[in-house]
Batch of 3 targets.
Target 1
Amino acid sequence: MYRAGRGKRAIARWLAAGTALSLTAAHAFAQSPEAAPVLSSREVMALSAFCGILAATVLSTLWFMRLRGRTEAENQRLALELENHRERIANLKALNAERNRRIVFWEGPEAAPEFLGALPEEAGAPEDEHAFLAFADWLSPGSSKQIETAIAALRRKAKAFEMLAEARNGYVLEVVGGTTGGRAHVRFGALESIRAELAELRVEHKHTKAVLARFETLFDAIDMPCWQRDGDGALTWVNRAYVEAAEGETRERTLHENRMLLGAAVQEKLDEAVRAGARFDGRQPVVTGGNRTFYELSEVASGDGSAGIARDVSALQSVENALEQTLESHADTLNHLNTAVAIFDASRRLTFYNQAFEKLWKLDMGFLESHPDNGELFERLRADGKLPEPHQWREWKDKALSVYRAVEPYSDLWYLPSGETLSVFASAHPRGGTTWVFENHTEQVALKTRYNTLVKVQGETIDHLSEGVAVFGPDGRLKLSNPAFLALWRIADRDAAPGTHIRALIETCADDPGASDGWKLFARMITSFDDERVSRQGRLDLASGLVLDYAVTPLPNAQTMLTFVNKTDSVKVERALTEKNDALRKAEELKNAFLEHVSHELRTPLTSIMGFAELLKAPETGALTSRQSNYVDHIANSSSVLMTIVNDMIDLKSADAGILQLELDRMSIDDLIDSVADDISSRLQESGVTLEITAPPKLGDITADFQRLKQVLLKILGNAVKYAPRGSIIALSCWREKDDFVFTVTDNGPGIADDALESVFTRFESGGRQAQYAGAGLGLAIVESFVALHNGRVFIDSEPGAGTTVSCRIPDAAAGRGAEIIAAE
């Protein structure tokens, strides 16, 4: 545009010049006198115009020729410049296609970056322009920070730089930054092989020095002695902790003196391991600063030397010693537990078991000491028939062993084939392993079963009681009640639901004054805050005619039980019985008075009759005929029988009144048997019956009343003689059972019927048997009373037609076992 405008202005100048020239010529011709006659003014004007046109044409031609030359020169220059630009574009395209460098341009501080070229794939640089500028994502942290700082300084202050950058994959790049024509550019280039290797070595050396410096700083900061030794065993580097532990002055002096931390014996072990190229690990005591310190030593051979570290584990050693003592104490404690405990390590091997575990599973010691695997232990117990047999044994076993991998503990109930119930709990240790606890819940399960059964039985029992029962809580609300309670108080089920307050029951029973007063009393006792809760019994006379006996009984947990018994019929019967009892008491008093009077009145004449009979039989009185002698004997015998009856009545009356006292003394049982045999012999002869005594040679002594026991034996034997047929044998068997004296009397009499056995000890009852001699029926009653006074027992075993056996057990009063025998039998 600039050049074209300038050409038009030149043409205008040339045309103006030609016109001016023609006009000048015309004017000249017009003023020339010589020419005036030849040309007219019009001709002159035409000629001037022609000349101007000719001059303009010549000038235009000359200008166009000059302009053409300039245009050709400009075209040549532009063609050359175009060729240069094309060559530059080709070079830039070649540069952009090259994979060993990438250039970033910024036209200005705020301009967007432009990119040329690319880096090799092994450099790990992203192709995306935005991702490429995120240096922290693909360069190492140190390199990315350095480049970002350098680029910022380049763009702000035009500060050039040159550095090596390391990619995250370890690839090394050369980074050069500078400015050209006011533009900032940064070139990322891949190095040639030798330069790349050199750069990598520099980077690696730099990293190695940095790492070494960091490690030396770290080792100087820790309180564990660290050292390095060369192939000859001499120290080449130590940290501060080593210098202090070895009691050296400085690091340099410690290295110069080659001051060893360990004793000669321990150092020799380390040297042997290093010479063998092995690693030494061990805990050794070392004396430092006059104190005995335990170090955990580790030294490894590396190249032509070795490096080691010593960790002070004195505190750990003390803790381990204390832990060992604690574990021993815990093991001793666990061995005294009744709960079976087994501990398995991380490899599932048995490491500990207590005595209860051994007793529970009854496994041989050799198997347990072999540290069996947990699964192997289960298989052994299963083979011995000591574990449950589920349908899916493998799944059951895997579930139990899953505790090693589970976060939550394992718990289950095992019902063993032996009938035992085990509560099994297993918990995994944080560092591996598991503790198994086997608690025998057989008794608890049985107790729970019995408890549940008891609760159900008690519930059914309460529901079927004829007494009304209601239980209230400390808040006065009804906990439970039975149907009898509702029936007695005529309360509907909905009005006595659990949770009903006692005030509601008071309102329900408000129509009956007696009931209302009673319920108010119950409410005070149930909701009272008294420290001492007492029971209370009483009777309520209701307006309906019911007579209820109540009892207020405190229960645990501040609960209270009310019981009501319908005594309406009982009260009526009680009144009738009271009247009858008064009559019977009066009759009993009359009977006792009569017996006492008769006994007293009979003893005196009987004593006189017996005395006169003896006097008549005495030779001094005179000779009697045989008939008279028989009469006198009959009188004496009858008087003796009557005296025995009277004495029996007196003894029974004394026993009933509780005034009969035994004369306890140490007595010989053998003497007792002999005395009884002598006294009964005459009666045996009269009845034609034989007494057969079976007893050990010595029956020993016993503390008892000799006369009362003799009386018991004579009564039983006399009773047997009375019913035994002539020619039969009565068997008396005596023996000792511990401290007790036991004897039995057996006859071959008619026996006693089953319906009469219950009344044989009743006074004035003969058991329905026919006897050779009549009796008053007091013999066995006397026997029962005297045996009971000795805290003994008497039994009768009889079968009609097969005879009767009477057994007595007399405890030794000195042993104090009478009450125990009665309770046991």
Target 2
Amino acid sequence: MSSVGRGGKRRAGPPAAPSPLAAKRAQPMPPGAPQPPPPAAAAAAEEDMMDEDVFLDETILAEDEAALLLLDRDEALASRLSRWKRPALPADLVSGCSRSVAFQQLDIDYVIGESHKEFLPNSSGPAAIIRIFGVTREGHSVCCQVHGFEPYFYISCPPGMSPDDISGFKQTLEARMKESNRNSSVQRFVKSVELLQKQTIMHYQPNKSQSFLKIVVALPTMVASCRGILERGITIGSLGSKSFVTYESNILFALRFMIDCNIVGGNWIELPAGKYRKATRVMSYCQLELDCLYSDLVSHAPEGEYSKMAPFRILSFDIECAGRKGHFPEPTHDPVIQIANLLTLQGEAQPFVRNVMTLKSCSPIVGVDVMSFDTERDILLAWRDLIREADPDIIIGYNICKFDLPYLIDRAEVLKIVEFPLLGRIRNSRVRVRDTTFNSRQYGMRESKDVTVEGRVQFDLLQAMQRDYKLSSYSLNSVSAHFLGEQKEDVHHSIISDLQNGNSETRRRLAVYCLKDAYLPQRLLDKLMYIYNYVEMARVTGVPISFLLSRGQSIKVLSQLLRKAKQRNLVIPNIKGQSSGQDTFEGATVLEARAGFYEKPIATLDFASLYPSIMMAHNLCYCTLVPPEDVRKLNLPPESLYKTPSGEIFVKPELQKGILPEILEELLAARKRAKADLKEAKDPFERAVLDGRQLALKISANSVYGFTGATVGQLPCLEISSSVTSYGRQMIEHTKKLVEDKFTTLGGYEHNAEVIYGDTDSVMVQFGVSTVEDAMKLGREAAEYISGTFIKAHQARV
């Protein structure tokens, strides 16, 4: 342990250079000049005169001393932190662009800036620049700035609209946009209007394409403005005033880019040799900052070599604050007294950095780099330096988004440390914290804080636990005991200030406590394979990893739906929420429970992925739905239609295969392959990836039904969701009847079977046998019998 604070004695070594005033006094006198008085006389003269010069000299010497101490501190800290740097770039990447660069992308966003003149020499004015952050196989950090991709959306083209009308429409829309965006520096708001032939995803329309206008605007933020103008109405030459339904105008720009470039979350991207340029004006702290055109990117499917993971750097940290008695720490009053840090490479079992920063001295801790500081300001600046030197890709901890990170930002503001919030990968870009409310059907309403650290993913283990597991308590102690069989160090929060105000040994006890609170989130991350699972979920659903951490289920389904629709030349309308008192449907069946204490074993029969199976078996989709008035108009034969128990009509696959069933088939087939590969795999890393993949596929499949039933969602369709639940009710009731009719004493069985409960996709059966083995045997027989009575997609299991 060593101290790197500002206090302490001056280091040994060569004497400091004399101050300018001292140097002036030490110069030899020129020839003929009056000689100075003898030393005694000089001393007496100084006693008689004002001591101003001596005071100034001492001040300068004191400033020199302070500067040297500060330099010592900075050099010592820099030396220690430099050990944690990433590996150096190879010479050919430092100097040129002669080799291709492949990296696994971890986050994608965009900024408004100027297009690269070499790639787009005719561009002018502000443009959207996509930024992709990632890591190479060798562990080098990458910031790739992608140019040339522009935001767009569609509207249906009114009948009779001529090329001249389209030109006039563009001019009128441009004028309206200028009026709505008077303070903008954009020179041309509407970049282009193009006539295309496409189909809407809504309803079955055999071989019937429509004319659509693709409207390209200057900036992503202008899509909403343009949409509003068109929805309110605009004059089109001789056609008069028209209002429009817009298509795909609510798609996030980064997601639109990923879909059009066939990029999925967490996949590998390659920049071919000669197709990129090293950034001339460096904007980030990444080792490689590159510029390219979006059309030159190569996106690799996550298969084979490209299914592997890059060595992401993961920083787990925890802070301790000196709270007042009886008060929860408040950043306006209570200082940060310790910060513990663990740095781990993805896939490694142990951290390669264990560090704790303490306010005041701290006794050594075996295997830990202890840094002690004299002031809280020094701690905060040292932590900022650690972030910059270690350059983590992912920052984790427990409740870091709602407490630790906002607390550090607030303390820096109180202490007026303006340079502290520069924690991201973009130079001069500060961490932003804002209050948020997250609401979804699965997770409910939650208040939190959105912390933006550009280029780094924040993974809060508390939020992940609340999202993914139903537990009685979400404290770090309880969660660690549940999953790890471990607990925090035994330090009650009420004695933290006393330990801090004690001596080096008491502060050591507090440091061990702080380190354990930083280590447990890393252990949970590894134990639950969170990085594998979330990367695989991002790959399967096609969204950035950050979307999985901050958004609900619907964005994942929308991403898959958009990708499939694009392949079929379909466009998706913006549909405003259908929520009203009339827009309800009957939910799943719950059979009344036969309450009691059962000594004999109960077998549970459930349908494998019931709702996905129903949607696949009956081809339920937006594009297969037939409105009642179209059944006669299209002259569709009854044998080519499904009529659901709720009365809706869908065409069978031989007329048109639904997109949602296709998505579900691919998800469940991929899950089946992943589970089969998992059984064969021996390598622990490969097993972790495959297990993460099969879990991601299961969750993704189950969320498709919910997407159609979300009345305030992106694309609600109650005809689909009500059909699914009506089939589910029918199947559960039919299963109960089949079991109780077949497994009887009259049928040759020892006892009459009794269904004691049923809910959504399963029934619980008492066969009357005494052993679990016999109950399982009869359960398997029942599952096989029931599955044979349903359409192939519905498979009962025990």
Target 3
Amino acid sequence: MALYTFGGTPADVLTDAVGNVVPDGAVVVRRAGTGEPVTALYEVDGVTPIGTLRSDPAGSAAPGAVRLFKARDVSEIEYEYHGPSGGTPVRRYQQARETASAALSTARSALAGPDTRLPLTGGTVTGPTAFAAGAPVTFTGPVSAPGLTDLPGARVFLVTGAVGDGVADDRAAIQAALDAAHTAGGGQVLVPAGRIYGVTDFLTVYEKTTIWAYGATIRAIGNTGILRNFLADDSFAGYEGRGSIQVLGGLWDGNAAHAGVGTVTAMTNVISWMHAADITVRDATVRNTSSAHGIELNSIDGGRVLNCRIEGFKDNSAAGNRGFSEAIQIDLARAGSGSIGLNDNTPARNILIQGCYVGPSSRLGLFGRAFGSHTLVAGTYYDGIQAVDNKIDGTMHEGIYAFGWCRSVISGNIIDNPGHAGIEIAVPDPALGYTLTPYAIAVTGNIVDAPGSESAIRAVGHPTAKLSGVRVDSNTIRSSGGNGLQIEHCVSSGVTSNTVESTASTGIFVNYSDGASVDGNTIRNAGSNAINASGSVSVAITANHIDGTAGNHGIAIGPGADGTNGQDAVITGNKIRRAASAGIRLSANATGCLVTGNQIRRDGGTTANGISLAAGATGAVVMDNDLSGNGWNAATALLVSTAAPITGMGETTALPGTNVVDTDLTPGTALEAAMRPAGRYETTSRLRCGTSSAPTSGTLNLVPIWLPQGLLISNIAFTSGGTAASLPLNCWFTLHDASRVALARTADQTTAAWAAHTTKTLAVAQTSAGTAGSCTTTYAGLHYLGVMITATAPPALVGEGSTLLGATAPGLGATNTLQTTPPNVTGGAFTAAAFTGNAILAYAYVT
């Protein structure tokens, strides 16, 4: 097992975000690339184990320095540590010292062979060559030999001669090291930590170069940016420019001018890359950008920005119109977008932005966008873009603007307080003269908190430039100033398993997007419709959980703003509660929709209807929905206007069909429900009342009635038939629960007349709660209405007749006898006696 050596260089110093050293800081060592913790650490002797690696303490000769140490079987690592104030951990990449030694060993082995020795004065070595000990040896040209491998890190060039006070111009000193690496064919440029290096113009880094800048600050003190991979007169095609470059660490201060601080007023990128492949910026902080971008990835194939912080932006443009500028821009080579040629429209592709932070700096504000693009040309896409696991702390416009991105992933980002959308996928307007149709874009596992007036996440195409295959999955949206999620002019998109809470407008808005699937989402407290599909064909809205809308409906299907019909929607398996108007609404011309297996509850809200259909909502099938527990009759639960949907087998359109509503008691309830006066709950339908029966004088008779939970009851009514009461002495009505416990009663009418063919309606006078005037039911199900009349001859009561079978549980009919005084029902004090068996099937109702 091999041991590899790390630490002990001038760059191995822990620093915080402003360059201060971090003494006695705990250091976690991870395997580069995988992040796996490395625990087999040893002192430089290779024997003594290290429990916790820490930087040198404050009283040492080099506070904050990381001493030499060894790690087993790991040749590339990342340091990880926290600054004094905690927060996001800092990571730094490093290769083992043995990497360079391996290159030297390879070279020596190659040069020691009989056929690979160097010539003395040029040409080919054909015999042994030796140099005297200590003698100088100079090579004026390239050296090569079979087996000589140019390993990364074989050449190291230290920046020397710099003042490092942040005032002096140190550009020449740093550029000299970069030029030396270029002359050598590549290498590593080491910028010593703990200093502030001022530069008055761009530094140019060449191909196959790694810049180590951990703990160093490089600050623009002129009126340009800091670093780029080209000269002003360079010109490259495609990705053929200076690539294979790494920038590791460093605070790159763009020094934008504002409020008397900073020198840069020009529109300039702090770090700019063009026409190249294999570019990495890792562990860097890019700060205080003037008008343009912190990092520009223009015409780059394989660009990576990893674990970086991009902080602070100032729009110094004369017009003040750079409020859209991205912290990291993904761009293409065209006139007006790049600094050099060729303007061949080469786009950036295969870009990874991971683990980065974007937000304000200590003296400057927010970027327009964190990551994105705003320039395109015909026939060109930004392909293979990944924005993964980043933190965005506010933007003036969108958090991430995926303009023309294709086959891309936006995942695991936390986006707080974007001025517009948190994430937007967009394409150019075809009116510009060309049409792009990006596809296969996944937006997954992001958190967007408190976005501005636009939808938190939106994918928006155009009528003739639609997006396809957009997947918006497992995102969390909170406190949106507009919609939660918006899919517009998309084809075959999926909006699944998202959580949307508290939106000013619609929770999920599907607009002109045929074949969309809206499945398994949770929407709470939407300002308008929880889910609205407008102008869309064949949308499937399934298994969503909706809880509360301040306006409109739980789910709405309707036309688009241009009149395009919504049609053939499938709405199934959704749970909807506390919608403001209807649980499900099929608006004008919402044709051919299937609404089945949904559960809709009012639950203390204002929901007026379970499912409502506009007159033009034709061809609907509305079956097997649970609309119970809301105090609705069939006509209220299913408000169908003039377009009767199919509600049951055999293409029946009778209400409620196979849908369950509170008054669905027997197979014939559709017509009976249609005949029931609004707001009335009856013991039986008036259509069934073909006779009348007289109760026994002085006996309390209970008639069964089904009542919903939460129903407010103020009055109880019975109707007399052709025989009036003769010499009445007492008369009162009662309400009982299924166990015959009295819940409410009316006052005794004593000798008041009760004429023939008259409905006597009595107000509630006492309840089990001790209040007068009304009673509210506490459950849905069986209750009883009681009638007690003492008279020489009681009146005949309209109903379905009488029966002798009332004693069988749950029972009905005659109970207490010889009644002359209304019972006290306060606190459930009165329970009617057991049923005797004699029963009248009287018609009665409550209101």
